[in-house]
């Protein structure tokens, strides 16, 4: 997404030039066993999460968050919006009870006035701008308007014709609300809050949007989507949606309100008609999202101007209505155990739930079975890997495939060699991964957390990608003459 002009970039960047982009987490509460606020805050502190967004202004949570330094976004629930939007006094009372009573011990930085009001509660839309103004006036009266920003999160579906981004515009039905709302955000130096869900865009595209494009996976330049009007190249859905918001605002002559993404994520489990709601895809999306935001890449339209984002969400919510995926957006289970371990190697510690210094060596998907077998034979022979765990009846025998057994041998060799560069290649059939390949009672080398305890088995067992089930006969000293020759070749390759 290209710049409309250099001055436009300066205008947007100047709004929060002194603030660093951040990744925060939304905290939903539709759990049958919702942890106590003190347990929630203990998890936040343990995971080094410094920004959270609440869907209410729960007193217990606000008290638990006091004196932690964690920056908190609170919400005026939709059901309270009508009263606040019709009465300045009601807004003042809300601020008194939910902000003044807790600030500054609780570091409240943002107030979300409602959530997706235009699409979820359209009958309240006429009072939305009044509600924003009344909440702002109450902050001014309490001398808190410089410390706390006021805005309202909107669903990305209000943006029409979103690709190419340069053609995007807001649903004209909402122009009477959006114009004064954007002017309010502009005058108060606040953000345009947007909920961005590439998962839904991907699911609804009927194959038009490639999965890799939705997941932030690296794309070759010729695979990127190009906006013909600006010649800007888009490598992911997230950036395209954010820039569509910028262009839609520009269509209403607003060019200096920065976008903040208040919700984004990917479900880790879904119904049978949601095959891409998987642990691996959720991990890939959120890990790539975190890196993208914190690297301050920005978007094609505003490069270098990072978009602060709240991940949806902290916990899986088993009481959420709707399809199975609705219950499985969380980074953690209610007991604080990670649903998956984030792929954050080499991008700094954002959450303690990352894989810094946790890398593994796995057989490469689609690798030739004969090449895998030869590499496996070398690792279990001249490579001096102890492959006893792969023998029948032992912990890592199942699944009995070349792919699974080769992954165990490759990873063991990789760790024996101190994870040195080049020790996970095996002539191109192995690759470094941050996904722990341990499964069941088969624990791979290096599969321990920072406290030295074994990781929980949140990683799915490897599936069978090879038809071979006789690889066990080649281990240790059971080499045929042909395999000895292959091993000699591998010795030369590895040296």
TrEMBL record:
The keyword Transmembrane does not apply. Residues 359-444 form the X8 domain. It holds the Pfam family X8. Keywords: Cell membrane, Disulfide bond, Glycoprotein, Glycosidase, GPI-anchor, Hydrolase, Lipoprotein, Membrane, Plant defense, Signal. GO terms for molecular function: glucan endo-1,3-beta-D-glucosidase activity. Residues 1-17 form the signal peptide. GO terms for cellular component: plasma membrane; plasmodesma; side of membrane. It is an enzyme of class 3 (hydrolase). It is a lipid-anchor; GPI-anchor. Its EC number is 3.2.1.39. One of its GO terms (biological process) is defense response. It comes from the Eukaryota. It catalyses: Hydrolysis of (1->3)-beta-D-glucosidic linkages in (1->3)-beta-D-glucans. It is found in: Cell membrane. The keyword Cytoplasm does not apply. Its main location: membrane. InterPro entries: GH, Glyco_hydro_17, Glyco_hydro_17_plant, X8. Belongs to the glycosyl hydrolase 17 family. This is glucan endo-1,3-beta-D-glucosidase. It comes from Handroanthus impetiginosus.
């Amino acid at each position: 997404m290209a710049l409309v002009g250099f001055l436009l970039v300066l205008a947007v960047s100047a709004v929060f030039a002194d603030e660093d982009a951040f990744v925060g987490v939304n905290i939903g509460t539709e759990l049958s066993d919702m942890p106590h606020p003190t347990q929630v805050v203990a998890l936040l502190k343990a995971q080094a999460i410094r920004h959270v967004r609440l869907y209410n202004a729960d007193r217990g949570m606000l008290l638990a968050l006091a004196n932690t330094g964690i920056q908190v976004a609170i919400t005026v629930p939709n059901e309270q919006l009508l009263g606040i939007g019709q009465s300045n006094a009601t807004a003042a009372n809300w601020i008194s009870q939910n902000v003044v009573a807790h600030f500054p011990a609780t570091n409240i930085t943002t107030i979300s006035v409602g959530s997706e009001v235009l699409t979820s509660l359209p009958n309240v839309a006429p009072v939305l701008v009044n509600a924003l103004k009344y909440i702002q006036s109450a902050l001014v009266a309490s001398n808190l308007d410089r410390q706390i920003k006021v805005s309202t999160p909107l669903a990305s579906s209000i943006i029409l014709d979103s690709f190419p981004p340069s053609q995007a515009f807001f649903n004209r039905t909402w122009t009477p609300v959006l114009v004064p709302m954007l002017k309010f955000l502009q005058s108060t130096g606040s953000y345009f809050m947007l909920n961005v869900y590439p998962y839904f865009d991907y699911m609804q595209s009927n194959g038009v949007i490639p999965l890799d494009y939705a997941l932030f996976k690296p794309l070759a330049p010729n695979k990127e989507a190009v906006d013909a009007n600006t010649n800007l190249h888009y490598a992911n859905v997230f950036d395209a949606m954010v820039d569509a918001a910028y262009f839609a605002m520009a269509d209403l002559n607003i060019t200096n309100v920065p976008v903040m993404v208040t919700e984004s994520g990917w479900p880790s489990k879904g119904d049978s008609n949601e095959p891409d709601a998987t642990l691996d895809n959720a991990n890939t999306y959120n890990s790539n999202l975190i890196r993208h935001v914190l690297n301050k890449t920005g978007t094609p339209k505003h490069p270098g101007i990072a978009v602060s984002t709240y991940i949806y969400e902290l916990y899986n919510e088993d009481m959420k209505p709707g399809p199975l995926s609705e219950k499985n957006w969380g980074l953690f289970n209610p007991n604080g155990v990670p649903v998956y371990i984030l792929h954050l190697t080499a991008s700094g510690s954002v959450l303690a739930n990352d894989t810094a210094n946790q890398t593994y060596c796995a057989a490469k998907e689609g690798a030739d079975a004969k090449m895998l077998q030869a590499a496996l034979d070398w690792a279990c022979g001249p490579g001096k890997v102890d492959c006893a765990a792969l023998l029948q009846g032992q912990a890592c025998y199942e699944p009995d495939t070349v792919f699974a057994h080769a992954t165990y041998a490759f990873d063991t060799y990789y760790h024996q060699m101190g994870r040195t560069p080049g020790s996970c290649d095996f002539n191109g059939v192995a690759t470094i991964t941050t996904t722990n390949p341990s499964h069941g009672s088969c624990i791979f080398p290096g599969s321990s957390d920072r406290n030295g305890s074994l990781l929980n088995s949140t990683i799915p067992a490897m599936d069978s990608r090879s038809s071979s089930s006789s690889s066990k006969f080649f281990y240790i000293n059971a080499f045929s003459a042909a395999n000895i020759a292959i091993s000699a070749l591998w010795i030369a390759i590895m040296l």
